[in-house]
């Protein structure tokens, strides 16, 4: 599988759309093409090179993820797979259900309600190559705000659903937020993995696909609710209380 990152609203929203192609069949999907003026040129280039766009995929309904659907549909009349509240959605896959792209890519839908109730992460597998597109649920070194959900739901999304994926699964989030996330993380703990992430974010503008679920378990404080250092920072010991306190502290940074 080939993943092309398409940065959108650089310097403000810092979103990513992703064009994921099955190299053998040349079938491809476009994930969260929210800003058509920045995405359509990449799609045209891909199609001109023989690639066929088969679906739009949305991670959740927010405008900066699903707000480009109508415009993209004018150019590519393809079904939209996404959460139930996404604009023009055709199909909302059940939690744990799978579909394929071309000959080789198997996609599994993982419901992760909290940031929005319709948030879905998508695990892509092509042989040993694994990638998860996490929208605004999991960021490199952080997580999304709890707009429509509870700390308990985010704990389940991050620490059961996503933490249960193989450690070598690469993480492709919906935004480039790593610098801000690690700025917060170092106030919570100064572990080696967090310092390493800080150094990487300091010298790399883009961090998507550079870290794995295994890395997140080490440097993402929202995935370390049982870590004594993290508990000490929050003054709490119950997992859900620790999650809530971390989110509040990050929000007020
Ligand atoms: Zn969002």
Automatic annotation (TrEMBL):
Positions of the Metallo-beta-lactamase domain: 14-175
EC number from the UniProt entry: 3.1.2.6
Keywords linked to the UniProt accession: Hydrolase, Metal-binding, Zinc
Pfam families for this protein: HAGH_C, Lactamase_B
MF (Gene Ontology): hydroxyacylglutathione hydrolase activity; metal ion binding
GO biological process terms, semicolon-separated: methylglyoxal catabolic process to D-lactate via S-lactoyl-glutathione
Catalytic reaction(s) noted: an S-(2-hydroxyacyl)glutathione + H2O = a 2-hydroxy carboxylate + glutathione + H(+)
CDD domains documented for this protein: hydroxyacylglutathione_hydrolase_MBL-fold
Cofactor: Zn(2+)
Pathway connected to this protein: Secondary metabolite metabolism; methylglyoxal degradation; (R)-lactate from methylglyoxal: step 2/2
Database matches in SMART domains: Lactamase_B
Keyword NAD: no
Protein family per UniProt: Belongs to the metallo-beta-lactamase superfamily. Glyoxalase II family.
PANTHER family referenced in this protein's UniProt entry, alphabetically: BETA LACTAMASE DOMAIN, TENZING NORGAY, ISOFORM C
Protein name, UniProt field: hydroxyacylglutathione hydrolase
């Amino acid at each position: 599988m080939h993943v092309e990152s398409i940065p959108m609203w650089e310097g403000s929203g810092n979103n990513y759309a992703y064009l994921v192609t099955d190299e053998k069949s040349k079938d491809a999907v476009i994930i969260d093409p929210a800003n058509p003026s920045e995405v359509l040129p990449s799609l045209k280039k891909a199609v001109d090179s023989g690639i066929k766009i088969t679906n739009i995929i949305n991670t959740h309904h927010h405008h900066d993820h699903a707000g480009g659907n109508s415009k993209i549909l004018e150019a590519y009349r393809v079904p939209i797979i996404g959460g139930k509240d996404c604009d023009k959605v055709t199909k909302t896959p059940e939690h744990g259900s799978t579909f394929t792209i071309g000959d080789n890519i198997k996609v599994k839908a993982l419901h992760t309600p909290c940031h929005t109730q319709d948030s879905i992460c998508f695990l892509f597998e092509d042989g040993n190559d694994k990638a998860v597109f996490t929208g605004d649920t999991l960021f490199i070194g952080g997580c999304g705000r709890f707009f429509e959900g509870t700390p308990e739901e985010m704990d389940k999304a991050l620490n059961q659903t996503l933490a249960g994926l193989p450690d070598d699964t690469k993480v492709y989030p919906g935004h480039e937020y790593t610098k801000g996330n690690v700025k917060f993380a170092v106030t919570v703990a100064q572990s080696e993995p967090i310092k390493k992430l800080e150094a990487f974010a300091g010298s790399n503008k883009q961090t998507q696909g550079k870290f794995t679920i295994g890395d997140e378990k080490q440097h993402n404080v929202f995935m370390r609710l049982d870590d004594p250092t993290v508990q000490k920072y929050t003054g709490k010991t119950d997992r859900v209380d620790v999650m809530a306190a971390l989110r509040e502290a990050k929000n007020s940074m």
